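Troubleshooting log. The previous run stalled partway through. Resubmitting the same two chains, unchanged.
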Amino acid sequence: MQGEVSMTQDIEKATEDGAFGITERLVSDVKDAVDLGDVAGVEALIDPLHPADVAHLIEQVDGKDRRDLLEACKGGIDGEVLSELDDKLRSQVIGCLDQAELAEAVKNLESDDVVDLVEHLQVGQQEAVLDALTDTDRALVEQALTYPEESAGRHMQVELVRAPEHWTVGDAIDYLRSDDVQLPEQFYHLILIDPRMKPVGYVTLGRLLSAKRNVKLADLTESTFRTFGVSQDVEEVAQAINHYHMITAPVVDEDGRLIGVITIDDAMMFLEEEAEEDLLRLAGVGEGSLSDRVYETTRRRFPWLAVNLVTAIFASLVIAMFEEVIAGLVALAVLMPIVASMGGNAGTQSLTVAVRAMATRDLTSANVLRVIRREVLVGLINGVIFAVVMGLVGIVWFGSPMLGVVIGVAMIINLVVAGLAGTVIPVVLERFGIDPALASGAFVTTVTDVVGFFSFLGLAALWLI
Amino acid sequence: MQGEVSMTQDIEKATEDGAFGITERLVSDVKDAVDLGDVAGVEALIDPLHPADVAHLIEQVDGKDRRDLLEACKGGIDGEVLSELDDKLRSQVIGCLDQAELAEAVKNLESDDVVDLVEHLQVGQQEAVLDALTDTDRALVEQALTYPEESAGRHMQVELVRAPEHWTVGDAIDYLRSDDVQLPEQFYHLILIDPRMKPVGYVTLGRLLSAKRNVKLADLTESTFRTFGVSQDVEEVAQAINHYHMITAPVVDEDGRLIGVITIDDAMMFLEEEAEEDLLRLAGVGEGSLSDRVYETTRRRFPWLAVNLVTAIFASLVIAMFEEVIAGLVALAVLMPIVASMGGNAGTQSLTVAVRAMATRDLTSANVLRVIRREVLVGLINGVIFAVVMGLVGIVWFGSPMLGVVIGVAMIINLVVAGLAGTVIPVVLERFGIDPALASGAFVTTVTDVVGFFSFLGLAALWLI
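Second attempt completed without errors. Output:
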């Protein structure tokens, strides 16, 4: 218990600056100890930390410091720290461990954590980890790896507690408390199964403990109970866990037999990852982590910028159609980016709302027409307001009421189109099976740029020149 | 059990189209029944649904349909459905219930759900809900409402199970199974407290059930244990729950005494809300939901567009400085949006990565300089590549090698500045206590627009004219 108490104190110290995580002080202390080659000092700093914090620390330190830190921890990196590291660092860290150290590190992990650990490793490293497992665990992990990436089967935990549906509370308690039963490290439910191994309900341990011995388990089941298929998308399962406030989601095979569970803590991680993915995709960043180096970051961002260049050139071609008009009135060149920029912003607003609402299933074919109508009307109203403002700017700045009318009308047209494109484009992309978060941005800004420049310069050609 | 079975079938039917939620078929069936005034039919469709799905259904139907649907459910809306509704609809639905119906609806909710329910209601409605509670529950809810919005105290659940730290497994099991103890609806841990009511560790029910009666609870505690202050930000607690894979987070008052818990299912909801907020703020949308009407949506989006208009006009002033240059070479007007657009995109990439990394605490002062250096270098490399491409475009399209050089150099300058501004601006805003997700976008695109136009037109003035 001595260790426990000092650990709590260390954590309190570590969280002075925030609710969780490691302090900047700690990072610099570790760096100093590493620089001094003070292995005992490094260990003293790292030992009291939660594995998630150790992983975070390794991610925070850089290049040579990181290598020295890993060197100092050698043999001391445990499996949970490996689980918490991001994919690329994990592979780097595993590369530093010898077979015995690796075996030691992975032996206490649950099967789903081992799967997470190995699924993105290169074949050689994967084999090394699998070799470090017992035969039973290895079979479980290899089985999980046969399911598609991102499926419930790939990410489920197979350690769970089954109970026949006819059992009473007394039967269940006696079973759980008997000597010869091997229970999972963490579990929160008993899952009731019928004679064909199909899950039919679950009982929380809290309810089990509060009930009389002669009560039937079947009378204590939770109304949130539902099952998920082994090949179902794991993010969908995670969304369902969030939607129905479940703690454990039972996973069944093709014949409906219970073969695993997705737990809420993993679901939380999947949802966080999904939200991050959507955010980064909408911004044209794609995957990647903060610990990526310059080369990888450049390579990841390049394609998005290249797409943007093509769309920007496309917009420039529209401007080029009106070169003579601009030569006749250079004020048009000054004002035209305003129309395009306002359209781009309004389009991004509509688009983001639509993409998010599709992710949370709030936008469905039941209400899509209403949402499109709303976005168009919002564009129209904001368009009219900004048309008046820009009309006045046109008059005051350039002394030309007609220029004011042109920019005003172009603004209305572009904001209406922005509302329409911002909603319709992601919906259509999704119908065609294309991730709307990934592709909508480029389409929408192309539309608003082209419409913005064309309507403004076109109206100017008609009414001003 | 008959009801249970048919419920499961209904859910299976309801999830044919997806992992969770309601089908479009169901929405249209409900609409049809509502249109026919078939109250029994509506009830038959709604009864088997989970409260979260009923709330979702109410959100999906529109205007008059929604009023008719609520009319048909009258007296049948239960408290959990109210909890699941979004704030504005909830207030509308509560407005339709009389005092007796309201009392019936809220009487079985946990204290934290009642707090969520009432915190955004108008005073009159809040009073009506509070009047519907028992005196004890009312006192708990009123206590929670004294804590700041978004604090752990406001959102904690006070129903929890304490155990003295000196107890054995046998003591705890006997206590939980005794007749005169009132246990919470859902609980997953025993929280150990010292004689001064300070929490010192927790034991999961699974571990409790697997241990011998004479084992001390103190020997079964989880290493994830840590406590949170009552006034701490609830999103921070949620992030810690995610980071440390906790199921229950104990909340303590100023004297360190245990007064409640934040549970993982609530934490998951807070994190989802936070991710959504960041996404919508980055896109300049702010709050708001899909069920908002045109007026509210217009009003919410307007300020962001207004800010964008000001920054766009600012960029136009920069262009206006070079009117004569453009008049001398209209090709500049055709090409200048490309430079600004590429800068804006690259800036948004850097910005989104930085904002997200700050939210997940991956970007700290320990690595901020490294990240800034990386972003600048990425801008430089991508800038050079696109400079070459655009240089060629300039030559091929306009037959002017010098124009190619001008746009190429301007591109490099703007992408480097984009990387710098995209990282430094959110970091500086956060130092000043301003939410970087909220304000960074406008600043960054202003910088990239101004720098893009100024460098391109300025270099053109120097080298071309």
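Takeaways: Chain A touches chain B through 138 residues (CB under 8 Å). Chain A has three domains: 2-148, 162-282, 294-463.
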